[in-house]
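Ticket #4471: structure output looks truncated?

Reporter: J.K.
Steps to reproduce: submitted the chain below (148 residues) through the standard prediction queue, then opened the result file.
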Amino acid sequence: MARFQFRLRTLLKLREATRDERRRKLAEAQLASSRLTEQRDELQAQIADLGESQLDASRPGSVKVNQLLAHGRYKGLLSANIQTMQEQLKTLANETERRRQALLEADRDVRVLERLQEIQQQRHHEGLLHKEQKELDEIASRTRMEGV
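Returned output as attached by the reporter:
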């Protein structure tokens, strides 16, 4: 019996490789976004700690002006860094969505070829069954003729 051979197997392998590459790129973008979010959260925690230090430096008694000024400058620097990170996170969110859509498209392409392969394989199997049935009918016909 003839063995089934999917003629578009190479194309299917290429599409699967494309899908896997897009999946990897999406994971990279998600990881970068996660790391940037962690860094932003750390800076926000530093600003909160800095606020407590500023309260201590401005308590009644001796005011530590230099320390208050340094805290103010550092808080401004941290706030600017957070703002930059927020913009980067927006850019990463857009890129992640673009990569997600590309992955969905690649996955759809693979599923179409896989479905085509299943259909062709089913047709091949049905053809083999039909051929086998025809041969059996022919044998039965010959046997009847010989018996008559």
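Triage note (M.O.): checked the attachment and the full token line is present. The chain has one domain: 19-147.
Status: closed, working as intended.
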